[in-house]
Design brief:
With 120 residues, the protein is mainly α. It folds into two domains: 73 residues, 434 Repressor (Amino-terminal Domain) (Orthogonal Bundle), CATH 1.10.260.40; 32 residues. The chain contains seven helices and no strands. Helix 2 crosses helix 3.
């Protein structure tokens, strides 16, 4: 079994969607889809995030060693909830959410910079 085949077996077993995997690993959804339709393995840069998503070891993903497979789900339920909700947003709402998150991040970074400067 190839890495790609094992990855899709894990996806099917976990009853999760390709778009969840794509979002988690930072790959376009159509790229993940292409790995299935044109049987190919994902590039090396995605292997560790794929393992994290499924909660399996790199040894299991690469070689299929059942002794190395971990069964814990690394993606916490609260993160899964957020991903599920994100997937139902249309593009306009996604832009709004990203804007709000960016604003909050800038405010937090500004506060950290101010606090660091005060402590010196």
């Amino acid at each position: 079994m190839t890495i790609g085949q094992r990855m899709f077996q894990l996806l099917d077993e976990s009853k999760r969607e390709q778009k969840e995997l794509a979002l988690y690993i930072g790959a376009p959804t159509n790229t993940v889809s292409n790995w299935r339709t044109r049987p190919s393995d994902p590039p090396a840069k995605f292997l560790i995030p794929i393992c994290e998503f499924f909660g399996v070891s790199i040894e299991y993903l690469l070689f299929g060693d059942a002794n190395e497979k971990k069964t814990s789900n690394v993606m916490p339920n609260d993160l899964k909830y957020v991903v599920d909700k994100w997937n139902y947003l249309d593009e306009e709402w996604k832009k709004i959410v990203i804007g709000k998150v960016s604003e909050g991040y800038k405010e937090a970074m500004s506060a950290c910079t101010t606090n660091t400067a005060k402590s010196r």
